[in-house]
Amino acid sequence: MYVLKFFFFVIYFPAILFSLTTVSSLISEKQVLLYLLRNLTLPDSFKSSWNSSHSTPCRWEGIRCDHRRRITVFNLSGYGISGQLGPEIGQLKIVKKIDLSFNRLTGVIPLELVNCSQLKHLDFSVNSFTGGLPRNLEKLVHLRTFKVYHNSLSGEVPESLFGIPHLKFVNLSSNNFVGSIPLSVGNCREMQDLYLNDNNLVGVLPESLEELELLTHLDVSSNHLEGRIPLGLGKCKNLIELVLSGNSFFGEIPRSLGNCSGLRTFDVANNRLMGDIPLSVWKIASLEVIHVHNNSLSGKLP
């Protein structure tokens, strides 16, 4: 009899433990969302959806869960939400996608965000966030997409951002970032899109950009960058768009840019470039758009 009771205990105890853990997680994550709600103004349509009497938040507007009913998607993009994002966001330990873009959010991005260790996609674009980016972004080791364009963010671009090993898409454009582009940008070997345009960045383009062989779009226009253009040494075959306009780049356009054999858009307008436009650039068969005005270029068009 005792053996039989022990058998049932061994069989059913893990299932009971799993069930209790799941319920505990649900209560915790539901509470996190309700705490976040205290500092946010949501549309009236959310009042029936985000209801504290519901046993689970998995069917709430903008929320998606995995098979264990843990929150994996927090997507409130384009709902016209106002207010501030609270530090409780860091309690969503399993969330893989946070998209709060196209709203009216203000205040700083919580430092606790880096505790969302499973995060793959982050989009805070087109809001009114202020202050700097969190300094320990390298903790987001699974992050692929980081978009915060069109806010009022300031300070330097942290080196930690480019310490994220599998980062592919970065858009920091239309903010007030200052300082130089971190040398660590070359560590992101999987980078495909890098938009740093319309900020107040200074210094030179890091030569480490040459290490980004998968890069397809690079836009650093409308900053205060200077120096020579270091690109085109044979590792830019995937580059489609290169926009460097509205800076203070000087010297000649490098002939090695002809190695960027897939280039479609080449924009270096409003700089201090001189010399001829290399024939190797004109020979790029895929080239569709080229802007070179307001420089000191010479020579004849082919």
SSE map:
Elements: H1 2-37, E1 40-41, H2 46-49, E2 63-65, E3 71-75, E4 82-84, E5 97-99, E6 104-108, E7 121-123, E8 128-131, E9 145-147, E10 152-156, E11 169-171, E12 176-178, E13 193-195, E14 202-203, E15 217-219, E16 224-227, E17 241-243, E18 248-251, E19 265-267, E20 272-276, H3 279-282, E21 289-291, E22 296-298
Parallel strand pairs: 3-5, 4-6, 5-7, 6-8, 7-9, 8-10, 9-11, 10-12, 11-13, 13-15, 14-16, 15-17, 16-18, 17-19, 18-20, 19-21, 20-22
Antiparallel strand pairs: 1-4, 2-3
Keywords: ATP-binding, Glycoprotein, Leucine-rich repeat, Membrane, Nucleotide-binding, Receptor, Repeat, Signal, Transmembrane, Transmembrane helix
Pfam families: LRR_1, LRRNT_2
GO molecular function: ATP binding
Could you characterize what this model shows?
- With 302 residues, the protein is of the alpha/beta class.
- It contains three helices and 22 strands.
- It has one domain (2-298): Leucine-rich repeat, LRR (right-handed beta-alpha superhelix), CATH 3.80.10.10.
- It has helices at 2-37, 46-49, 279-282, and strands spanning 40-41, 63-65, 71-75, 82-84, 97-99, 104-108, 121-123, 128-131, 145-147, 152-156, 169-171, 176-178, 193-195, 202-203, 217-219, 224-227, 241-243, 248-251, 265-267, 272-276, 289-291, 296-298.
- Strands 2-3-5-7-9-11-13-15-17-19-21 form an eleven-stranded mixed β-sheet, with no helix packed on it. The chain has a six-stranded mixed β-sheet with strand order 1-4-6-8-10-12, with no helix packed on it. Strands 14-16-18-20-22 form a five-stranded parallel β-sheet, with no helix packed on it.
- The radius of gyration is 24 Å and the shape is elongated.
- The termini are far apart.
- Mean pLDDT is 90; it is low at 1-27.
- It is a single-pass type I membrane protein.
- The chain crosses the membrane at residues 6-28.
- InterPro entries: At_inactive_RLKs, Leu-rich_rpt, LRR_dom_sf, LRR_N_plant-typ.
- This is Leucine-rich repeat-containing N-terminal plant-type domain-containing protein.
